[in-house]
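pls design
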C-alpha cells in the first residue's frame, strides 16, 4: 500500500523548533491538514518517533538522512522497527550531503548506488517505495526514479521543477522544498530570505544547480540578487506565496514541501496562513 503524502507538507528541524516541542509541532501540522512532516537537519531515523507518537495519521519523513553517517543495514533495521509500529506513516529521505560538509565526500553517485544496494541487501530491506532521494542533477534524478519513490529537490526555482519532472518521468514522486517568508514588506522579506540563503549559496551542489538554470555568479554574490531570492524563496502575503507553490505544482511537482523562514520557534503563523492559502 502506498504512503499517502497529500499535496503539501512542511519542513523544519529540531534545532529550529526545539526537540522538546516535537509533539506539539506535529499535532499542529496534522490539525492544519498537511500531509507530511519533513524533519531536516540530517536526523537519525529514531528521532522521528516523537512526531509519530504525537499524531494519528500524519506521515513523517526525513529530509534527509546522510549516507556518509549511516550504515545501510542499521538504517534498514531502524526503519523496520518504526514501520512495524507506525505502518504506512514513514518515508525515508536519503541524501549525499555536500562536499563542504563531509571530509570523505567522493563519487556521490557511486556512493548513493552503493548505499541503496546495502538497503536492498539488508535482512529486512527498506522498500523502494518507502525511500526517496535528495536530487538536483540529471544522474541523481534518474537514480531517484530508478531506485526509490522519487526525488526531493531543495533550494530550487520553478524551472528546476520543470526540468526534474522531465528527467524522472511522469510517475515518480517529485517533491521540491519551497522556503517562504510571510512578510508584506519586500525589503524586510528579502533580508530574511538572504539570511536563510547564505548557507546554501556557499554550497557547490546548490550553486552549480542554479548555474544550470539560468543564474549567474553575480546572482549568487552578496547573499543573492533580488532575481535569485525571489525565484527560490517566495515572499509576501500568504496568497502570493501560494501562487508560487502552485507554479511548482503546475511545473510537475506532485508534492511541495514548505519551509517557513524568518519565524522563530514553531512557525505557527506561517504554517497556519499557508495551510489556508494552499488548501492543505
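designed seq:
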Amino acid at each position: 500500500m502506498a504512503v499517502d503524502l497529500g499535496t503539501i507538507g512542511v519542513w523544519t528541524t529540531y534545532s529550529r523548533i526545539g526537540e522538546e516541542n516535537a509533539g506539539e509541532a506535529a499535532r499542529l501540522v496534522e490539525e492544519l491538514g498537511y500531509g507530511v512532516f519533513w524533519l531536516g537537519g540530517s536526523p537519525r531515523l529514531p528521532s522521528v518517533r516523537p512526531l509519530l507518537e504525537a499524531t494519528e495519521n500524519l506521515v513523517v519523513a526525513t529530509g534527509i538522512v546522510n549516507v556518509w553517517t549511516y550504515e545501510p543495514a542499521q538504517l534498514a533495521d531502524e526503519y523496520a522497527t518504526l514501520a512495524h509500529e507506525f505502518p504506512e506513516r514513514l518515508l525515508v529521505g536519503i541524501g549525499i550531503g555536500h562536499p563542504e560538509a563531509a571530509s570523505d565526500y567522493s563519487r556521490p553517485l557511486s556512493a548513493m548506488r552503493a548505499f541503496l544496494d546495502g538497503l536492498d541487501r539488508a535482512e529486512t530491506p527498506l522498500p523502494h517505495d518507502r525511500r526517496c532521494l535528495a536530487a538536483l542533477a540529471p544522474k541523481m534524478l534518474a537514480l531517484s526514479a530508478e531506485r526509490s519513490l522519487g526525488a526531493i529537490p531543495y533550494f530550487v526555482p520553478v524551472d528546476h521543477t520543470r526540468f526534474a519532472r522531465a528527467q524522472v518521468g511522469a510517475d515518480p514522486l517529485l517533491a521540491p522544498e519551497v522556503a517562504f517568508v510571510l512578510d508584506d514588506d519586500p525589503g524586510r522579506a528579502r533580508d530574511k530570505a538572504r539570511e536563510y540563503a547564505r548557507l546554501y549559496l556557499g554550497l557547490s551542489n546548490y550553486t552549480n544547480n542554479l548555474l544550470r538554470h539560468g543564474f549567474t555568479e553575480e546572482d549568487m554574490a552578496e547573499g543573492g540578487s533580488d532575481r535569485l531570492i525571489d525565484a527560490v524563496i517566495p515572499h509576501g502575503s500568504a496568497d502570493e506565496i501560494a501562487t508560487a507553490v502552485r507554479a511548482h505544482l503546475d511545473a510537475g511537482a506532485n508534492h511541495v514541501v514548505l519551509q517557513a523562514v524568518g519565524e522563530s520557534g514553531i512557525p505557527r503563523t506561517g504554517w497556519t496562513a499557508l495551510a489556508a492559502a494552499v488548501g492543505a
